[in-house]
Amino acid sequence: MIKRWAYYTGIILIVGLISTAFKPINSQNQQWFYVDADEELLYQFPSEKTSDYVNLSLPFTGKFFIGFKEALAFKESQGKYHKVNSLGYLGKYQFGKTTLESIGIKDSATFLNNPKMQEKAFVALLKKNKWELREEIKIYRGKVIDGVRITESGILAAAHLGGAGSVRKFLESNGKRKVKDNYGTSIKSYMKQFGGYETHNIVADSNPKVR
After folding, report:
1. Nearest to residue 148, comparing CAs of 130, 93, 157?
2. How many Å apart are CA 199 and CA 10, to the nearest integer?
3. How far apart are CA 60 and CA 78, in angstroms?
4. Contacts of residue 57, Cβ cutoff 8 Å, sequence gap at least 6
């Protein structure tokens, strides 16, 4: 009789343990489940090589340099290395042939089919623009012009769009010179959209060349 009682008691305990294991958790009572509205989420991809994500439909997130260059590339070409637009601008970052020649690239066909060269070209142009706008970065960084807080990365992105001279005109005129590219995209919009990224590791260079 005792053995039978112990047997049934054991069965009841096992069923009880199993049923509690499948009890749904009320997520509304879990504080770790919530994310504040101003909290930044960073996602880390399995590979560090940008070329592994040629067909990625969304740019990298975060304010690191990789976030800067991928966000800018997505804006320029949706991150497509073989993109050629209606004005003849080439590649992931949409370079003009004159700009390519200024950093030592004369063969645009080779450039268009060489992702590594395109990445080097982007960094080289950043170095060149940072050198040309080094005084403007010192003077205007942190100021608010025409409703936009000026940052180094914003200045460099705007220079990529319209050249260092256009950025200088915008800043020196306190935002009154509304410079736009041929598609109607403004220098101001790039300063705002790409502001606050980490670009301090880019070393200014008066004459960078892609080897």
Report:
1. 157
2. 65
3. 12
4. 78
For 134-175, how does the pLDDT look when each residue is reduced to its tens digit (9 = 90+)? 999 999 999 999 999 999 999 999 999 999 999 999 999 999
Give the Cβ contact number of residue 88 at 10 Å: 11
**119, 121, 122, 127: CA torsion to nearest 10:** 130
Cα distances (Å, whole numbers) of residue 115 to 36, 55, 83, 110:
38, 13, 12, 10
Show Cβ contacts of residue 49 under 8 Å, excluding neighbours closer than 6 positions. none
DSSP-assigned letter for residue 206? S
Q: Model-level pTM?
A: 0.71
Strands (DSSP E) contained in 111-180 are 144-145, 148-149
Q: Which residues pair with 84 in a beta bridge?
A: 90
